[in-house]
Amino acid sequence: MDQISFFSAEASGPELADLAGVLCGPGQVVAFGRTAARLSVEVGEAWRAQALTAEFARRGVHADVLRDETGLLVRTAFRVDLIHLARAWGTGDVKELPTGFRLTGGALRLWALAPGQPNGNHYLLAVDEQAPGTHTLLADACRQLGLPARFVGPRAGGPAVRVTGRRRLATLEELIGAPPPAAISVWPQVRPLTAA
Predict the structure, then answer these.
(1) How far apart are CA 137 and CA 143, in angstroms?
(2) CA angle in degrees (0–180, nearest 5) for 172-174-176
(3) Distance between CA 14 and CA 11 in Å, rounded?
(4) Does residue 73 sit within a domain?
(5) What is the C-alpha to C-alpha distance for residues 194 and 196, in angstroms, rounded to an integer?
(6) Three-class secondary structure of residue 127 per DSSP
(7) Which domain of life is it from (predicted)?
(8) Is the dihedral of CA 115, 39, 147, 161 positive or negative?
(9) pTM over 0.85, yes/no
(10) Is residue 31 a part of any domain in this protein?
């Protein structure tokens, strides 16, 4: 019988803190004074926007999908319960990984939903190009979750945190749970070995 990892998205259940997963990638959080914050993330495909709004709703947060000049924007209203994300991820113009940040299966799932892509025998979790100080720290956070990963630059398909290898891809797949139906083709999968 298969066991679910204690750290997987399915085992831990949805939590508001999981929304930090979109901040691991291209997401942004903006504070309104010291009382509220708005979370947003640009995505390239409609299925990603739909999946993220559903995941936000599972955590009690309504998000709208807006179309802008570069694609689709998933955005919450300004909310009091999101101010902790704004405080933790930086109060200035540069996004910073919170001190002592611990990645969870739920946060990793949202990170995969926003910009995750297979790339040959690898899986890439895109990072925010405007926040280079977070890149290697995010790879470290993956390792602390039991998912060995490394940061790669543009020549290797990045900037992204890259997961490579059958066992690691299986771990990633277990941690983030089942894909939404529209995400099956871009979800991490362990490809069957072919006979030589």
Answers:
(1) 10
(2) 70
(3) 9
(4) yes
(5) 6
(6) coil
(7) Bacteria
(8) positive
(9) yes
(10) yes
For residue 85, the domain's CATH number is 3.10.28.10
Residue 187 tokens read as 């979800």
157, two tokens: 């398909």
The continuous run of DSSP H or E covering 169 comes out as: helix 166-176
Domain coverage including residue 111: 9-186
Q: How far is CA 165 from the centre of its chain?
A: 20
User: Count of residues for the chain?
Assistant: 196
Would residue 4 count as lying in a domain? no
Q: How far apart are CA 107 and CA 21, in angstroms?
A: 4
Phi then psi dihedrals of residue 174, to 5 deg: -65, -40
Domain membership of residue 179 (yes or no) is yes
Tokens 């925010």 correspond to: 128
Is residue 158 left, alpha or beta, with left meaning phi > 0 and alpha meaning psi from -120 to 50? Answer: beta
Q: What is the pLDDT along the chain (196 residues), one digit of tens a residue?
A: 344 444 544 556 789 999 999 999 999 999 998 899 999 999 999 999 999 999 999 999 999 999 988 889 999 999 999 999 999 998 667 899 999 999 999 999 999 999 999 998 899 999 999 999 999 999 999 999 999 999 999 999 999 999 999 999 999 999 999 999 999 999 998 766 554 4
Beta bridge partners of 118: 123
Nearest to 25 by CA among 13, 3, 40: 40
